[in-house]
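User: Before I run my own analysis I want an independent prediction to cross-check against. Here's the chain; please return only the structure tokens and, at the end, one sentence I can use as a sanity check.
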Amino acid sequence: MTSTLCIADHCGITGQHQPDCPNPTTCRGCLPRPAADGLRLCEVDTRRIAEDARTAAVLHEDLALTLIRRGRGGERVASSSLSAPVPDDEVMEARHAIRATLVSLVRIIADERGLHLPADEVSALGAYVAHHAVWLAAHGAADEHARDLRDIAGDPRTRRLAYPAGTDRLYIGDCPLIVADLDGANEGPCGTRLHAYGDQPLVQCTGCGTEETVEWWQRQLVGDAPVEVDAYTAAADLAMRHRREVTPAMLRKWAFKGDVKPLGKDGKGRTVFDLNELRGHATKLWAQVAA
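Assistant: Structure tokens:
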């Protein structure tokens, strides 16, 4: 029996092509993955519905940080001390698109499932959509929902507006996925350096070939509820979250100034920090810098 394929427009297995692929030599892969049982999307794109909803809510919040207006020849702009001014209307348009998409999905879920609406805050809207990701993946318009969320969460223009001071290429850590060697005798972490690029919503490991969202890689690198991490892992995590270069030396400087408290050393002699404390300090610090 032929399995049903995922209907998401952006679904494709790397290196595998449909019979009518117009250019297999340049196509990254257009053969969709099999849909999950009872759903119209594959497991990967079902998960990405939730990730894109949460990412879109974060983008909406981070776009607000760029809305520090300065008069410039009569033009209202959002500005960063580390980058060129960004037109204010473009930022507002991006935020409106995010909110409108999430509101539309929330209304579909609430109306068709007979549920209460969440709080009228974008963070709550994103969490609500993410919570109902599996239901959306089984919906008759699952492909539209997946595409709409991918458009607002993965649009490189929106990311450049949200993180105007970010670099185009960020090191986010070493691939932690377990792989076997060529003869299959030994297994260990892939270890390939991972880089996120400003115009690409997905990060690909050139070692094992895994291609996923930045948020997915973040969970593999530090977990869902991280507590103690070394300075290198912490720096990569902050670089991902804030789209700017962060180094272990910067974190050690924060510790020296008393802004954060190191938790000691790990077995390899590396300084260990509370990642949640670092995240809180970074958010507060860079929000102040922008202001």
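Sanity check: Residues 169-290 form one domain.
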